[in-house]
């Protein structure tokens, strides 16, 4: 009889412990799968974990935004472009650890199996909404579609992406700090150049601007944000584009404009020099005859280098209106901007890789 009582007590104890352990496991499972719903930039409703610790960012410009918002430590895999030794994107130079992370496939979207192998909590994706949906179905991982855009529509596109990423990764305070820095910088550039009449402004042109590959002197963007920020007299303004548009300007048009000062992407200096060798008539341009051609940092590398664009604006301002920018050391200003955007000063590395701020001899 005594043995039966002890056996019954043992059974009750074991059952109780099983219920207790099972209950704890259920609670733990509930905590790990706690979810929330967000709406991404393509207006898709996506359910994601409330706490996100592991991420992958795919497509042109996606990883750059993650770095801007101070979340590089959450990245668990990168596209192949981040391992390239010739990668001169400032965010990549500042975060060499990306080159040691596993690759998750080729540029512009990666490979579903390689992505899933890294088990990210969410995937940030800059690209076609249909591709984002397909990637989520293939991996079983929430995919957040982003948009990046350019400076003129930053309120409608770029800042919305930052705020969405900030909400998901708990970086909302950082987002507002960066937006304020961006807006303060643009306001400063405009204030420095207010009140200068058109007669006092030299006519300028920006060429050699990369778009899906390098270009020579004909490669341009219109409007060109650095010129807008310092209220420069841009000869290409007559093209009349409202949104930043990559254009190939005809040789005849450039010769007709005959700009007094030319800025070129230092990374494409060889291509610009090649144009002059093929078409000697470019040498008659006032800017070239008077040795007023200057190199600037690349506008893009796998989408916009927003920090470099601001840094270029200060350099261009100093060249055009030296008295208004007498307190600015362009290299030091670039490093200040890089520290704000990507956490490190990388101007010297950029200068070594692509040339940096300098007068360019084209003849």
UniProtKB/TrEMBL annotation:
Presence of the UniProt keyword Signal in the record: yes
Tree of life domain: Bacteria
Domain spans labelled Fe/B12 periplasmic-binding: 54-324
Signal peptide start and end residues: 1-21
Assigned keywords, A-Z: Signal
PROSITE patterns: FE_B12_PBP (PS50983), PROKAR_LIPOPROTEIN (PS51257)
Pfam family, one: Peripla_BP_2
Cross-referenced SUPFAM superfamilies: Helical backbone' metal receptor
Entry keyword annotation includes Ligase: no
PANTHER family to which the protein is assigned, alphabetical: MOLYBDATE-BINDING PROTEIN MOLA, VITAMIN B12-BINDING PROTEIN
Family: Belongs to the bacterial solute-binding protein 8 family.
Protein name, per record: Periplasmic binding protein
Natural source organism: Acetohalobium arabaticum (strain ATCC 49924 / DSM 5501 / Z-7288)
Lineage start: Bacteria, Bacillati, Bacillota, Clostridia, Halanaerobiales
